[in-house]
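User: Structure please.
Assistant: Input sequence and predicted structure:
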Amino acid sequence: MTEAERRQAVARLLVIRASGHAEDRQRQYPVWEHCNRELQRLLKSGVGGVILLGGSATELQQRCRTLRSWSNSEDLLLCADVEEGIGQRFAGATWLAPPMALGRLHQTNPDHALALAERYGRTTGDQAHRCGLNWVLAPVCDVNSNPENPVINVRAWGDQPESVADLVAAFQRGLNSAGVLGCAKHFPGHGDTDQDSHLELPLINHERSRLDRVELVPFRRLIDSKIASVMTAHLLIPSLDDSQPATLSRAVLTDLLRTELGFSGLVVTDALVMEAISSRAGPGEAAVQAFAAGADLILMPADADAAINAICTALADGRIPESRLHESLKRRTEALQRCDKHSLNDTVVDLETATDRGLCIELIDSSLEVQGPLLPQHREQHGVTLIRVDGVLPCAFLHANTAAITTPERHGYKALICHDRGIEPWSNEQSPAGPLDLERLGKGPVFLQLFLRGNPFRAGQQRKEPWAEAIQQLLAVKRLSGMAIYGCPYRWDALRKLIPDNIPAGYSPGQMPEAQQQLLARMMGVSSEAHERQDFTD
């Protein structure tokens, strides 16, 4: 193999980040997303994979066509983090309730949960295929055994290993039927952490026997069912390797995953730009260590050229045997042979079918939890709905016309939205009465709507907010009229206990507009269809 051939072969193993939008100025994260000029250069030089984020599903269809036209090969890997359906990342497609919704349903109705999980995978795969993607970076196989997990949380399919294994296997069956590749992540298990690997390197101190009983159970199930790929976790697990994160550990990726568990598919790193890795090694060295450890594909190196150069040097110097390169290329080819070939043309394909839409509504409806009487309604504007957003605006699930804002306003509750870069509801001084600044809220009854879930890069900030004390404060002054929580089931399980029987409360794992509409309709005692018509006419 000549030096030029080796360089092109190594480039084939990189997966770089691109915006789903067509124009450079539309990029949401230009630090991570290559501009079009760089994308063309890297794809023509042999880079073999692109991960996409941003834009509508229709834009994504065209973007995938464009990226294929820029590539020097027909076997381009095109993927996205669409753990909650294509609509989670690309507007216009179906956004599904998070997997944890089915984890909770599985506790009471396992057969229904498994049937929905398989449809979940089929819908995700079908829409991915229609958009031009051939690789879905899901399912999450982490067992979310730590309620304080700041980054996995509702992304997991539950907190019981066998239940998670059953559900991810059902999801994967659905995905397989669509002819796209799946990815079990984050190996060997990110569920029992209270740190975010986007920001730091989490430490898991479990013994190997515990990993076998809990963390590894879903991965074993999907490996046995021939999952196409496994994504690594940026975790330090001393019982497996006391010096290297799993992503950079031969003990984890080769000895455990390949040899012991018998996985023969593609191993892909989690994004190497994450602080858990980038704070330890530069982009070239991180890529070399991951490849030497047993990874086949290098996802989002901080510098693609540096990663290619470093791996080529390591191969030339003998630090990594050239047989490793051929093995990874062979696995990549075998994986792509499992995909249905896309025949993309200039025709825009309808992305969401009536069946897809039906699944979206059914998932939401089957995961809602409501207690207490109906939410009081007022003819005049004299109440407030306090909406807490765990993150910054704008966000995909909350805009001016979403139900969380318009429905309470129509029934007498003026919206007050709190987020990191806007209004904060807390008092500047500690008060024995409670943490809320009630004067800032104004007068009248208060309807709490809390959008709380595990979000990357947030470092669990939502855990520090004293919502239990705030509820007790509002109860003491007889101003709490109701509570709705969207997202984290653990916050719901804790806070619902504080709500008296005479005050309504409700929960939805999903935060999307459809989930808001369904939950509020249930809490107000009206049909969601009537609710939707009323929102439309308003």
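The chain has a mean pLDDT of 92.
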